[in-house]
Amino acid sequence: MIVYRDIISGDEMLSDAYALKEVFDADGNKVEGIMCCESKMINKGGDDVDIGCGNSFGGDAAEDGPVDDSVQKVNNVIDGFQYTETSVGSAIDLKGFLKDYFNAIVLKLREMKTPKEEIQAFKATCPLVATFLIKNFKELQFYLGPSFCPESMVFSIYPDGAVTPNFYFIMGGFKSEKF
Fold first, then answer.
1. Does residue 4 contact residue 154 with C-beta atoms inside 8 Å?
2. What is the pLDDT of residues 65-113, one digit of tens each?
3. Would you call 68 helix, strand, or coil by DSSP?
4. What whole-number distance in Å separates Cα of residue 68 and Cα of residue 90?
5. Distance of CA 162 to CAs 102, 149, 158, Å?
6. pLDDT digits (tens, 9 = 90+) for 53-66
7. Which of 81, 165, 168, 169 lies in the 20 to 30 Å Cα band around 25?
8. Which pLDDT tens digit goes with each residue over 111-132?
9. Residue 38 phi, psi dihedral angles, 5° rounding
10. 122 with 112: CB under 8 angstroms?
11. In DSSP terms, which residues pair with 15 in a beta bridge?
């Protein structure tokens, strides 16, 4: 399993259990430096365990008894990584955040002795990522990781007609750890 950890906050923000997809802008151009994953609603809690036999032991669970109040529907990505929704005032505020974030990533990469070529490659993606996020500002939701570090954020957008959002990650701000 690969876990992606934010290099500023140290928070686990993503894992390879969630399929990462490339991101394309409204014109169909690939946006380098950012990836997304789909989320879904899942049941959390309760004691119902499916051992793979389906309904072999009789009765439909919905007909067998009362609804289990300990089961709740949660978003698998938000719950799995303990994201907390936050807000950003305007597109101009987002632009300022991204500028500060990109600079903080570059400083952290230098501190980590990252090769100059990798830092330059990250810097080359920054305008593309910023343009994509700012153009989609009205559709974005913003999330902090479990440490509530305001210097790191994850973004989400609901695709047309979807009930759950896609989450967007600036990959230059993560380091991967294999477990």
1. no
2. 555 667 889 999 999 999 999 999 999 999 999 999 999 999 999 999 9
3. coil
4. 42
5. 30, 29, 6
6. 555 555 555 555 55
7. 81
8. 999 999 999 999 999 999 999 9
9. -80, 150
10. no
11. 3
Structure tokens, 144: 């902090």
CA neighbor of 81 nearest in space, from 37, 125, 46: 37
Which residue shows structure tokens 């946006």?
31
Backbone angles phi, psi at 55, to 5 degrees: -105, 30
Residue 4 CA to residue 12 CA, distance in Å, equals 6
Please count the residues of the chain.
Answer: 179
pLDDT of residue 178: 92
b/e for 134-158, b at 16 or more Cβ within 10 A? eebeeebbbbbbeeeeeebbbbbbe
Residue 36 β-bridge partners: 21, 168
For the CA atoms of 141, 146, 148, 150, the dihedral, rounded to the nearest 10 degrees, stands at: -60
